[in-house]
Amino acid sequence: MASTRDALEFPESDKGFLECQLPPKDGSTPRPDMPFTTLTFATSLDSSLALSPGARTVLSGPQSKAMTHYLRSRHDGILIGVGTAVADDPGLNCRIAGVGGYGGENLDSQPRPIVIDPSARWDFSEDSKLFQLCRQGRGRAPWIVTTRQKPSAEKQALLEKYGGKFITLEEIDWSVLFVALRSNGLRSVMIEGGAHVINSLLEPSNMSLIDRVIVTIAPTWLGQGGVVVSPPRRFDTEGKAISAARLKNVKWYPFGEDVVLCGQIRVNDDV
Ligand SMILES: NC(=O)C1=CN([C@@H]2O[C@H](COP(=O)(O)OP(=O)(O)OC[C@H]3O[C@@H](n4cnc5c(N)ncnc54)[C@H](O)[C@@H]3O)[C@@H](O)[C@H]2O)C=CC1
Ligand SMILES: Nc1nc(O)c(N)c(N[C@@H]2O[C@H](COP(=O)(O)O)[C@@H](O)[C@H]2O)n1
């Protein structure tokens, strides 16, 4: 039996209300050629994801962290930008008890990490957390999405050794990227960040691609100099500034000292 050491528990009593926010269990998707997409991250009261670019910053408390890992158990993929990969050296696996490597035998129950790295600048190695977890049977190797830069043969070989791969696109166009991920077998993807990725997805031309938003809000101000979620403003037909984006069907759930906000993006709404 795989080890349950370090496994997180997410109580049954907390799963019920989240169910309507999650990708359907039958694998169906709102758009047939794209995965179900969940934009999910933890933020401070001043909209920061981290103290500074490059600083791994803990915002979620234990309960909301377990919720994030439960979300990871319910998605086929976890997407981040290369800024996050470099700053955090993340594991991007699911540590919920019963999932592959944490009491479960089936590694397929672990989500696939996806890293957006247009110029293949991420200098990963055997020591990177993701590959350590692969060796322990506790996580899967990433798919790295590049555009203009051909990755080195060494990087390609290392990635492929662990079962990962490079996906090369003409450019990072979110629609094209999501279609590519669906055609590679992913039915659901949670997008964790960082700020560049989130702000880009909240632009008017991209926001309709997001099916759910699930944000953990921690009761802290990180202060000036943080890595901030603040998408570009929109303007109405008279040139007046309006909100960048707004949610509908909003629900708030307390999790320990944090609160988790769930909603859907309001599209074509200038309020
Ligand atoms: N609190 C939280 O939940 C999270 C916090 N973070 C934090 O966020 C910080 C990293 O954020 P960022 O520096 O903004 O980096 P990022 O992770 O958003 O990556 C930015 C890079 O990704 C690529 N990229 C992303 N979107 C692109 C697009 N639309 N087109 C082309 N290329 C694109 C570019 O190479 C860009 O330089 C780290 O400090 C990390 O700890 C990251 C994820 C979640
Ligand atoms: N939900 C959440 N809360 C926080 O406080 C965070 N700092 C993050 N960060 C995201 O989680 C990744 C780290 O994952 P591992 O624990 O290494 O598996 C990090 O890279 C961010 O994407 N998320």
UniProtKB/TrEMBL annotation:
Any GO molecular function: 5-amino-6-(5-phosphoribosylamino)uracil reductase activity
Q: Which UniProt keywords apply?
A: NADP, Oxidoreductase, Riboflavin biosynthesis
Entry similarity comment: Belongs to the HTP reductase family.
Pfam families assigned: RibD_C
Identify this protein by name: 2,5-diamino-6-ribosylamino-4(3H)-pyrimidinone 5'-phosphate reductase
Catalyses: 2,5-diamino-6-(1-D-ribitylamino)pyrimidin-4(3H)-one 5'-phosphate + NAD(+) = 2,5-diamino-6-(1-D-ribosylamino)pyrimidin-4(3H)-one 5'-phosphate + NADH + H(+); 2,5-diamino-6-(1-D-ribitylamino)pyrimidin-4(3H)-one 5'-phosphate + NADP(+) = 2,5-diamino-6-(1-D-ribosylamino)pyrimidin-4(3H)-one 5'-phosphate + NADPH + H(+)
Entries under SUPFAM superfamilies matching the protein: Dihydrofolate reductase-like
User: Which part of the chain is the Bacterial bifunctional deaminase-reductase C-terminal domain?
Assistant: 35-261
Task: Give the EC number.
Answer: 1.1.1.302
Q: Which domain of life is it from?
A: Eukaryota
Function in brief = Catalyzes an early step in riboflavin biosynthesis, the NADPH-dependent reduction of the ribose side chain of 2,5-diamino-6-ribosylamino-4(3H)-pyrimidinone 5'-phosphate, yielding 2,5-diamino-6-ribitylamino-4(3H)-pyrimidinone 5'-phosphate.
Please name the GO terms of the biological process aspect recorded for this protein, alphabetically: riboflavin biosynthetic process
